[in-house]
Write a structure and sequence with these properties.
Keywords: ATP-binding, Cell membrane, Membrane, Nucleotide-binding, Phosphate transport, Translocase, Transport. The chain is an alpha/beta fold. It has helices spanning 7-34, 40-58, 117-123, 154-160, 175-185, 191-204, 208-211, 224-236, 254-267, 280-286, 304-309, 314-320; strands spanning 75-86, 91-102, 106-110, 135-142, 145-146, 161-164, 242-246, 272-276, 289-294, 297-303.
């Protein structure tokens, strides 16, 4: 145990350890009862919870909160009281964000320009660590684990949470090497395995048929829509659990946009997707849930159908109807 722990923290730590121990016993008993049923989904959730509570119970540092013990495992992310400032606290960009983002759903982030959508989505895989003058408070949990804790290294987080940017970002390499480079940088060296993953990733991004005969030609020779699908292929090559998409079709023509939207419908079968979009029509076409941001705050979150047909917040309605923007 670490030194210089105040008595109140130590007392809380011991109390929580007792609670975790009892919770493990309770969950193990529930697991035994479930083993005689066909409820496999619930059994998976119980196993996940047991695993997390055991990690919590073994934690020997009362001053570090690595996991969220009441995490809802229907969510891929849970955000608690998250704030972010730019320019050494000169600009308060995100204000008291509390939000749960569901697994295996497409969640659209909508709102006026400058409302915090892109700032928020880049927070989910710690892109702001690369920006000077940024400060943060609050917590972001990914599958119960605090993304800023020592137990979730930055490189591991970014392999699990892929990112696709507004404009296609191919490397100045061949189509093949655009994907292989990411694999090699994460320690995958076997050429047969790399070849397999490159093919699977391009197929997953609906690009294989377009490029299978030109794999070793420059990626810059592809059309804008093909380059964006290559960016998606590169993101899914590492088998992430989440895809973050920051206005992925804003630089594309309608035909290429339609192909990306069709691809999103396919990808959500395997990944949780968070997409920033300025297109209300696109949000309705591709998303299951919608979050409305306004002036750095989340004003409303619900199913996409509810947000677009019966919004609870007057500003949400004004934005959807085009009265604010």
């Amino acid at each position: 145990m670490h030194k210089k722990i105040d008595p109140q923290t130590k007392e809380l730590y011991l109390q929580k350890k007792g609670e975790y121990k009892e919770k493990i016993k309770e969950l193990v008993q529930k697991k035994k009862e479930l083993l005689s049923t066909d409820n496999k989904d619930e059994l998976i959730k119980i196993n996940e919870k047991i695993k997390r509570y055991k990690i919590l119970y073994k934690n020997k540092d009362p001053n570090l909160i690595h996991f969220k013990d009441d995490y809802n495992f229907d969510n891929i992310f849970e955000i608690d009281n998250y704030n972010l400032w730019y320019s050494n606290k000169a600009k308060h960009a995100l204000k008291d964000i509390n939000l749960g983002i569901k697994k295996n759903k497409v969640t659209a982030l909508i709102g006026p320009s400058g409302c915090g959508k892109s700032t928020f989505i880049r927070s989910l895989n710690r892109m702001h660590d690369l920006t000077d003058g940024v400060s943060k408070t609050g917590s972001i949990f990914f599958l119960s684990k605090n993304i800023y804790s020592k137990t979730l290294p930055e490189l591991e987080l970014r392999s699990k949470v892929g990112m696709v940017f507004q404009k296609p970002t191919p490397f100045s390499l061949s189509i093949y090497e655009n994907i292989a480079y990411a694999l090699k940088s994460h320690g995958i060296k076997d050429k047969i395995k790399i070849d397999q993953i490159v093919k699977e990733s391009l197929e997953g991004a609906a690009l294989w048929d377009d490029v299978k005969d030109i794999l070793f030609q420059s990626a810059h020779g592809l059309s804008g829509g093909q380059q964006q699908r290559l960016s998606i292929a590169r993101a899914i090559a590492l088998k992430p659990e989440v895809l973050l998409m920051d206005e992925p079709t804003s630089a594309l023509d309608p035909i290429a946009t339609n192909k990306i939207e069709q691809l999103i419908h396919q990808l959500k079968k395997s990944y949780s997707i968070v997409i920033v979009t300025h297109s209300m029509a696109q949000a309705q076409r591709v998303s299951d849930e919608t979050v409305f941001f306004y002036e750095g705050r989340v004003l409303e979150h619900g199913t996409t159908k509810q947000i677009f047909t019966q919004p609870n917040n007057e500003k949400t309605k004004d934005y959807i109807d085009g009265r604010i923007g």
